[in-house]
Design brief:
Number of strands: 12
Largest sheet: 6 strands, antiparallel
Shape: globular
Protein name: CRISPR system precrRNA processing endoribonuclease RAMP protein Cas6
Structural class: alpha+beta
Order of helices and strands: EHEEEEEHEEEHHEEHEHH
Radius of gyration: 19 Å
Low-confidence stretches: 243-266
Helix content: 25-40%
Distance between the termini: 18 Å
Mean pLDDT: 86
Number of helices: 7
């Protein structure tokens, strides 16, 4: 099942910046996770990693998350507490490890929606035919999520369903900013920000369920290219289905209730 470990890190030198280049994040993820993977050279890796950021509730500490996608085996990262890790020239002590999981079956059982907002917290980009694409193209986005899901989940989405999804889903709103990906000589331009994707109200229920599950899955799998390097870190807001009401009901309903009704169900992961 998709599993996340949130690591709380105490830096040896707290004055230094917590910025870690993507290549070093990738090296750490491979050391900690690839021993549990059967294929070290697979193009679709069973893990993703987030950037190192300042811990919001622990001043002077840093945090990162490691996400594992393979449903057949899970690496024992709970034993990392107290270990020392190196990221480039910076050293950290793992002060705490918090694990959480969201089984594939639970993602499929989420209440179906036809509107989601994805929040791209680290630089995100896509590739196609050898070209990089710094835009949240819905076809590329959901094709990539479906490929990762079908590689690691015990129950896959049939090809006709994923084809229908990528042909139907639409990008309907966005607030994005161009941003460089720190990849050394092979620099790329990507984006951060948020984007909203929708299905038409006429979309069948099985399509809406797949759309919902894959959108929630983005929190574990990441979005786009080089998610094993800290790129494509994403959180998901699933907007509830709006009920049809008459004008009298709409006038009587408190505004705070309308806001609450639009909040997302939880996917099982902590933000």
């Amino acid at each position: 099942m998709p599993t996340r470990w949130q690591l709380l890190l105490r830096p040896t030198d707290p004055i230094r910046s917590t910025h870690i280049p993507p290549a070093q994040l990738h090296g750490l993820a491979c050391r900690l996770l690839e021993g549990a993977s059967a294929d070290h050279h697979s193009q679709t890796k069973p893990f993703a990693i987030t950037p190192v950021v300042e811990a919001p509730h622990a001043p002077g500490y840093a945090t990162l998350a490691l996400n594992w996608l393979d449903d057949h085996t899970t690496p024992p990262l709970d034993t990392l507490r107290g270990e020392h890790i190196r990221l480039g020239s910076q050293f950290f002590t793992v002060e705490d490890v918090q694990g959480s999981s969201a089984p594939y079956a639970a993602l499929q059982a989420l209440p179906a929606t036809r509107r989601v907002t994805l929040n791209f917290l680290s630089v995100t980009y896509f590739t196609r035919s050898g070209r990089w694409i710094p835009l949240p193209d819905p076809e590329l986005l959901y094709t990539g999520l479906a490929r990762r899901w079908n590689t690691f989940a015990p129950q896959t989405f049939p090809d006709p369903l994923t084809t229908s999804l990528r042909e139907t889903v639409r990008l309907t709103a966005h607030e994005l900013h161009s941003a460089p990906a720190d990849l050394g000589p092979a620099s790329r331009t990507g984006f951060t920000g948020q984007a909203t994707f929708t299905l038409p109200h006429s979309a069948p229920d099985d399509l809406a369920s797949a759309f919902t599950a894959l959108s929630a899955y983005a929190e574990a799998a990441g979005i786009g290219a080089q998610t094993t390097h800290g790129l494509g870190w994403t959180t998901t807001t699933l907007h509830s289905q709006r009920r049809t009401t008459n004008s009298k009901d709409q006038q009587q309903r408190p505004s705070r209730n309308r806001k609450t009704a639009d909040k997302s169900p939880q996917s099982g992961y902590s933000p």
